[in-house]
Amino acid sequence: MIENLETLAALARFGTMLKTGTALRISQSAVSKRIATLEHTYGQKLIERSGKNVVLTKAGTEMVEKVRPLLAEIRGALKAQVIESRLNLVIGVSESLLSSWGAAMLARTAARQKVSIRLHAHRSPVVVDKVNSGEFDLGVCAGSIGKAGSLISELLLREEMVVIRSAQFNKKPASSRPIKVITIEPTSATWKAIRKPISLSPITVDQTLESFFSIAQLARAGVGHALVPIGVARTLSYRKSQLVRFGGKIERPIQLLFRKSRMAKPAFERFVADLHQQAGQTDP
Asked: Is it the case that residue 226 has pLDDT exceeding 70?
């Protein structure tokens, strides 16, 4: 209940769900749920919406004025305690993400939220299974994960797929001409996500492998053009001139997976909200 009252006080200060969520490091939907809980508990309407802005009702204003001194006293008492409660998370991550830009994004979020994380690299279907079983608290998966049972799935961002020009060919392929490529195996989650846009593109698949980094290195060795996530190409220091891009027409989704019960922990909720914020500032 204290967190709900703090949220109402913050809403009175910032005036919008977005700014309040940013200040508290939670999602806008979490802000709405906390206010709705207060209104249900006390049987009074506490806020009114005016476009994107939120205005407290008379009852809401009176409640904030009464609880603000109490909240300040509680915060002071908590700060006086030396013991710090830390959240420890076990996170499963798709291998190509953890090997490229994903590691830095997760590390930044953990540092900002003062959360201890233990990371595991797996293929996306394995991550889904381990989140479902409770072995992992959170999954960061690339591609189409299909049915995830009772898990909550949230889109984090979309990663562009690019073609690395092979060193074997003098003639550079263009995005408008047919391009034969080496890419990920058809049973992978990424392939399931990009199969349809690939069918509408000039790309044809010549051969497949199980690892994007191996595929990218084959392009460097001159074996053939490689279709890989742009994060993989950048991690291996490929130059812009070596890449064929398709204007965002071929992308793979990057998704967060977790059990609904995890959101009962405010620290977990804040971690997920901050991860979304960090993803919005990430260019794979």
From this structure: yes
